[in-house]
Amino acid sequence: MPSTHALESLSNALATPAQLSSSSSSLDGIPPDLESSIRFAGALLTQAAGVLLRLPQDVIAQAIVIFTRFWIGADGGSFAIHSAKDVSAASIYLIAKLSFHPTSPRSVLNTYTYLLSKEASPLWFVNSSGASDKPNPETYYLSEGGYQAQRLVLLKTETIILRALGFNTHVVIPHTIALTYLQTMNSASSALGKRVFEHLNASLLSPQLLYVTHQPNALAVAAIYIAAREVGVKLPEEEWWEVFDVDREELGFLVVAMNSIEGFANSEKEAWAGKRIPLLVEEVEKELRQRQTQEGE
C-alpha cells in the first residue's frame, strides 16, 4: 500500500465549487468573458516567457498553474488590482527559483519588457499586426531605473502570490504520469507520447481551468485517450482508465474539454482581432470604460 504522503505527492490542491462560482475579479465588476480572455493571454505570456528564458516545460507548466490559481475565488487576486503581466512574471520567477533552473530578476524583467513591446513582441495578443521587421530597440530596452522599480514590483508580487496561495506552491504536472501509464500498458511510442504532451500543454490554456479542477492522473488519462485515437494506437479494449482511478464520466468531460481548446483559442483570436488583450491594470480599466461607452450608445 502506498503511503498517504506518497499519494499526496501525486495530487494537487483543487479549486472548490465556491471558489469557481465567484472570483475577486467578478466582484470588482470584471465581466466573465474579459476575465477569461486575460487569464488565457496571461497563460500564453507565461509560456512564451518561459521559452525565452530557456526553462524546461515542467517548470513553465507549474508557473502557469500558479498563475491560474492566484485568480481563483473571492479571496484570490483581481484583474482590477493586480496586473496579469506582473503575476505572470512573479509566477515564473518563483517557480524557477524553487526548481533546479533559477533565473535572475533582471532576466525575467528584460524578457517581459520584450514580450510586451508594441513593436518587437511576437505575441498576437500584444501586436495584432505582428512584430516589426526592424523594431526600435528603445521599445524593449529596460533602463536601470526602470529595472530597479520593476524589481521591487516583482518581489512584492511574489509575496502577494505566496500569501494568496497560503504558501502552497506544490504543483504536480501530469506529463511524467502519462508516460508511466503508457509504459504500463506497453503503448509507449514517440508519436503517441508527443501527441499526449501536446494535449497536456494545451490544457494549461483551458477556459475550464482543467489543471485546478482535476487531478493530474485524470488529465494524463484523458490526454492518452484522445492522442491514441488521433495517432491510431490501439489501447486495451476493457475500461483501462478505471485502473488509473478515473471513471467514465470524468474521462468524458475531460475529453470534450480538451477537444474544445483549439476552438476556444480561435474564438479569442477573432474576438480580439486588431486589439490588444489588457494585461495591465490601466489597460483593463480602459477596456471597461470602452465597454460602458458602447453600452450607453
From TrEMBL:
Q: Name one GO molecular function term.
A: cyclin-dependent protein serine/threonine kinase regulator activity
Database matches in InterPro entries: Cyclin-like_sf, Cyclin/Ssn8
Entry superkingdom: Eukaryota
Q: Name one GO biological process term.
A: regulation of transcription by RNA polymerase II
Bilayer-crossing regions: none
Signal peptide boundaries: none
Protein name in UniProt? Cyclin-L2
